[in-house]
Amino acid sequence: MIKILQVNKFFYPWFGGVETVVTQLVEHLSKDSDNKVGVIAGNEKINSSKSFYKWNGADVYKTGSCAIKFSTPISFTYPFVLKKLINEYDVFHFHVPNPLAELSFFFLHFPPSKKVVVTVHADVGQTRWKFFSPVYNFFLKKMLRRADVITTMAPQNIESFDVLRKFKKKCVVVPLAFDETHICEVDETEKQSFYDKYGIDKQKKIVLFVGRLSYYKGINYLLEAVSNLKDVQLLIVGDGALKDESMLLAKKLNIADRVFFTGFLRGHDAACAFTISDVFVLPSITKSETFGIVQLEAMRFGLPVINTNLPTGVVSVGKDGETGYTIEPADALALTGAIDKLLSDDKLRKEFSENAFQTALQFTPEIMVDKYKKIYLN
Q1: What is the pTM of this model?
Q2: pLDDT of 131
Q3: CA–CA distance, 82 with 241 (Å, rounded to integer)
Q4: What is the largest CA-CA distance in the chain?
Q5: CA 198 to CA 261: how far, in whole Å?
Q6: Can you give the pLDDT at residue 186?
Q7: pLDDT of 264-281, one tens digit each?
Q8: Mean pLDDT value of segment 179-206
Q9: pLDDT in the model for residue 72
């Protein structure tokens, strides 16, 4: 039996890109009786007490959080719980950035017999928290030096993440996977209910955005692009710090009547949003967007994808001229042109739709988990 511990900031029911990856690993690894699977994470709620429980066959250790700052739980018990678990597991899979883990790792000893796998999901130096990066990277580099294997989701990230520059020989590419929880059939009644709930006109074309409404997503450029197009609706699925600002911009651009904010959706509701849409757009403008799992989800529903030419894994998912279009970041006019071209050409849209669906099938959770299994065992 191999004993594998996933080490992350948060865990279910907290939703986020990294948490989706951890959840997929836990669910699929736990199906194999030869695996013992555990997760350590901070509590997503401010609660000083730690808890232990079973989730889909895995052991979940949640440490008490006295606060949540910079999207990270502040937990003083995290390093102590992790220390106790060193003797109980064989493989430790760290998902970073996670200051809790990096700081804990710095003061703990992982014997050579323990396998350490580190997945670098983002480079702090390329995010809005970059002013922390000199201190943060000091701790992270100790973990990377000790790591047996370092993974990231695309070859572009190995080149563009400064923190990986000295560790390229340890780096392995393991692409991420789409979220299976959204993959379900929706019937006409469900679609009609969705149209009615949000006041969407089913006769008009729909552009879809799904994601957190934050600074690097480029929502303002998407809104501007839609304002240049007549009779085109924009469905924004997500929430975040820029929601109010985005709603005000939609009013300023006189398109508030055809821009629909739904908040975060999951399951059938998310499937409805993907199913009724014609084109998906990921208009991100900075290297904080390192992959864009949501592109895969859209492609799994057969949606052509318009993404941006970032030096990250984003362009390894949606392929320019094959599954959609890649435009330069922060270019509303280019985005307008790409959307217009896809919406006005049914034959082209259908071709890209079929390519997108076939491409998404190369990024299933089973494929991702199988690659990690081989890393754990080798």
Answers
A1: 0.92
A2: 67
A3: 32
A4: 63
A5: 8
A6: 93
A7: 998 899 999 999 999 999
A8: 94
A9: 85
Q: What is the dihedral of CA 226, 231, 237, 238, to 10 degrees?
A: 40
Secondary structure, 3-state, the chain:
CEEEEEECCCCCCCCCHHHHHHHHHHHHHHCCCCEEEEEEEECCCCECCCEEEEECCEEEEEECECEEECCEEECCCHHHHHHHHCCCCCEEEEEECCHHHHHHHHHCCCCCCCEEEEEECCCHHHCCCHHHHHHHHHHHHHHHHHCCEEEECCHHHHHHCHHHHHHHHHEEECCCCCCHHHCCCCCHHHHHHHHHHHCCCCCCEEEEEECCCCHHHCHHHHHHHHHCCCCEEEEEECCCCCHHHHHHHHHHCCCHHHEEECCCCCHHHHHHHHHHCCEEECCCCCCCCCCCHHHHHHHHCCCCEEEECCCCHHHHCCCECCCEEEECCCCHHHHHHHHHHHHCCHHHHHHHHHHHHHHHCCCCHHHHHHHHHHHHHC
CA atoms within 13 A on the CB side of 284: 26
Query: Token digits for 111?
Result: 């014997």
- Nearest 5 degrees, angle CA 326-CA 332-CA 338? 40
Cβ(150)–Cβ(168) below 8 Å: no
Task: Give the C-alpha separation, 72 to 100, whole Å.
Answer: 8
The crossing angle, in degrees rounded to 10, of helices 267-276 and 293-300 is 70
Q: What is the mean pLDDT of residues 188-202?
A: 97
Least Cα distance to 336 among 216, 224, 257 occurs for 224
**Residue 146 burial (CB < 10 Å; 0-12/13-18/19+)?**
middle
| Amino acid residing at 275 | T
Q: Please count the other Cβ atoms lying within 10 Å of the Cβ belonging to residue 127.
A: 18
CA–CA distance, 347 with 128 (Å, rounded to integer): 41
Q: How far apart are CA 108 and CA 223, in angstroms?
A: 48
Are residues 54 and 44 in contact, defined by beta-carbon separation less than 8 angstroms? no
Identity at 325, one-letter amino acid code = Y
117 with 93: CB under 8 angstroms?
Answer: yes
Whole-angstrom distance, CA of residue 31 vs CA of residue 348:
41
Q: Which of 202, 130, 186, 172 is nearest to 371 (CA)?
A: 172
Neighbours of 366 (CB within 10 A): 11
